[in-house]
Design brief:
Distance between the termini: 21 Å
Largest sheet: none
Shape: elongated
CATH topology of the largest domain: Leucine-rich Repeat Variant
Oligomer: single chain
CATH superfamily of the largest domain: Leucine-rich Repeat Variant
Number of helices: 15
CATH architecture of the largest domain: Alpha Horseshoe
Number of domains: 2
Helix content: 55-70%
CATH class of the largest domain: Mainly Alpha
Order of helices and strands: HHHHHHHHHHHHHHH
Length: 270
């Protein structure tokens, strides 16, 4: 599965010039009122014995309050879905505070709506805060039918490591809507698996390639298998090797499983 806990450099020293961040401003924004990154909690939420309707009603009220109250309301809609929240969430994508923008992006990932697509793509392209762009890269995975393929490919090529990580994962969703999208998504993921400097990005690329495999034409499927085998045998990071092996095993292709068994028999993998 995708790596969710990529350590974030301080802050993103590999940013291209046009995406540079001000470390002091970013630190102040992220320290203000927010404990942690909502993304770290979204995927680990446990079902709670709460009155969801009442909690959403509270969230709607909080979203109309002051900044501290809006932050609390955003946390509610990072957990729960309620279409009534959409008109209140969309304006927060333009909030001056990066923490508010980031949390609104996550909430709109949990509550996808067609009206959010254009502003989310705008943030992915132009927001100067890497945490906001990271949030967008995650959230767009919940908009597979929207025109997200090329923006995610661009982010996987050009953005900082934390954004590339989630762009790689969301490309599995963007490409799974048909062969016409699966092939260009796989092409970029193959390149990232080979050359990206960040092991977590390579690992997520391997994971996404495994998911896209059924939607690919046979020649591309063969290329994916060979690339995953190469990563399994030669990548310098054990997490990438493990993810490549898991992706190969989950293809459930007899010839691929036979090749893996041969590698075990020859002592090349354990």
């Amino acid at each position: 599965m995708p790596d969710e806990a990529l350590p974030v450099p301080e802050p993103f020293p590999d940013s291209p010039a046009e995406l540079a961040l001000d470390p002091e401003v970013l630190a102040r924004e992220l320290a203000a009122e927010l404990l942690g990154d909502p993304l770290d909690e979204i995927e680990a939420l446990e079902p709670a014995e709460v009155d969801v309707a009442a909690e959403c009603d509270l969230g709607l009220s909080l979203l109309q309050g002051e900044q501290e109250q809006r932050m609390q309301g955003l946390r509610i809609f990072c957990e729960h879905r309620d279409p009534r929240a959409i008109p209140l969430l969309l304006p927060l994508l333009q909030a001056p505070c990066a923490v508010l923008r980031m949390s609104a992006v996550y909430a709109l990932g949990r509550n996808p709506h067609p009206l959010a697509v254009e502003p989310l793509l705008g943030l992915l392209q132009a927001d100067d805060n890497g945490y906001v762009r990271k949030a967008v890269a995650w959230s767009l995975g919940n908009y597979p039918d929207a025109p997200i393929l090329n923006p995610l490919i661009r982010s996987l090529v050009l953005d900082v490591a934390a954004v590339r990580l989630w762009a790689a994962s969301s490309l599995a969703d963007a490409g799974a809507t048909g062969a016409a999208k699966a092939d260009p998504a796989a092409a970029q993921l193959l390149q990232s698996l080979r050359i990206d400097s960040e092991p977590a990005v390579r690992s997520n690329s391997a994971w996404s390639l495994g998911l896209l495999y059924p939607d690919l034409v046979e020649p591309r499927q063969e290329t994916v298998v060979e690339a995953l085998l190469h990563a399994l045998l030669h990548d310098g990071d054990p997490t990438v090797r493990d993810e490549a092996r898991l992706a190969l095993e989950q293809l459930e292709q007899p010839d691929v499983l036979d090749r893996l068994q041969t590698l075990v028999d020859e002592g090349l993998i354990s």
